[in-house]
Every structure is written in C-alpha cells, then in structure tokens.
Amino acid sequence: NQIFRVGVPALTAMLVDLSTEFKEIEIYCTPGNHGRVGPKGWGNPVTNFDSVFSEVLKLACQHIPNIKFKVTWEWYLVFYIWDWGFMQTHGDNIKSWMNLPVYGWTQKVMRWSGSIPEKFQYLLLGHFSNVSYLRWNDKKIIVNGCFPDSDDYVTSQLGMLSVAEQIIFGVHKNKGVTFKYEIGLA
C-alpha cells in the first residue's frame, strides 16, 4: 500500500514538477532497515522493500528524460558532485550510545574513511529521524529528517519527536557544501 498507492504516485508527481525547474536531476537510492522483511525489520538485507520502492520509482519516472537514478542494493553508495565525494548510507548500522548517535557517527565516519575504497568528504545519513549537521576532523556528517510528521515508533521507542523535515544543500565546485536549509514538510 505504501509503495503503490502512496509513495510512488506522490514522489513521481513531485519529480514531474521538479523536472520542469531543473536541467538535470540525479537520485541516489540506498536501502535501510525500514523495508527489510523479517522480525523487527532485521531480515535478510537483500530482501528489502526500500530497494523495491526505489526500482519502482525509477520505472515510474523512466519517461522523464532529465531524471537519472542510481539504485544500489548494497548498504552504501558513494557518488560525486564536482570532485566532492558523498558517502550515502541509511545509518541503521550505526549504534547510539545512551540514545545519542553522535559517538556512533564519528566512529563510523573515521572507520569507513579508511576501509571503503572510494574517497569521500561527506557522510549522508537518514535513520535517526532528526535533521543534524556535524563536522568531525575533515569529514562532514549530514543527517536527514523524516517525511511523516508523526511516527509512533520514533516516539514510543526513542522517546523523540518525529519532525517532518528534510535538508536541502548546495555544492560549490571549489568549496563543497556552501549552504544548507531545513525544509519543513508538515
């Protein structure tokens, strides 16, 4: 129901509108724990409705010539804007300490920068349901918010508000990310 009656139609309509405003749109999709089939969403990572959703959205938008998709079924994806590397992962593989994710973010960004073959300056995350931005040494961590404005899981399990907001940012050829805005979706 969420994929075929709500998500794909709503995002396709939004992308059709955006395609008239931008010369080119590139969409990068990585799976997380929300779409996993199994108990508490921890089933086999290859059986993941996040990836199914991304593939269906890609098919729904194939008639729009200026929209390009990069969908991975792996846990992360590195892409480049100009020469700036962005590592994108959902973030469900990062543990919080005392319900605070910052320690996990900083540990993972340091470890991944030395263990994955692609080089990156920015780590992009979802999963934590709140917009955040953090600099750690030479890496910058950008965490996106939620689409829904109320999420029982976030409230009951994490004791936090689910704020419907996303981050939009701009990348300068020579300076990297130069501006960020929180976009309220409620």
How would a crystallographer describe the biggest sheet? 5 strands, mixed
Provide the succession of SSEs: HEHEEEHEEEHEE
Oligomer: single chain
Q: Helix segment count? A: 4
Major β-sheet strand ordering: 3-4-5-7-6
Kindly provide the radius of gyration, computed on alpha-carbon positions and rounded to a whole number of angstroms: 17 Å
Number of strands: 9
- The N- to C-terminal Cα distance equals 21 Å
Mean pLDDT: 91
- Low-confidence sequence ranges: none
In terms of DSSP E residues, the strand content is 25-35%
The geometry reads as: globular
Helix- and strand-based class? alpha/beta
Percent of residues in helices? 25-40%
Main features:
186 residues; alpha/beta; five-stranded mixed sheet; two-stranded parallel ribbon; 9 strands
Care to describe what's here?
The chain has 186 residues and is of the alpha/beta class. The protein has four helices and nine strands. It has helices spanning 2-19, 49-60, 102-115, 152-158; strands spanning 25-29, 67-71, 76-81, 84-89, 122-125, 132-136, 139-143, 165-172, 176-184. It starts with a helix and ends with a strand.
Question: Would you spell out the secondary-structure blueprint of this structure?
Answer:
Blueprint: H1 2-19, E1 25-29, H2 49-60, E2 67-71, E3 76-81, E4 84-89, H3 102-115, E5 122-125, E6 132-136, E7 139-143, H4 152-158, E8 165-172, E9 176-184
Parallel strand pairs: 1-2, 4-5, 5-7
Antiparallel strand pairs: 3-4, 6-7, 8-9
Helix pairs in contact: 1-2
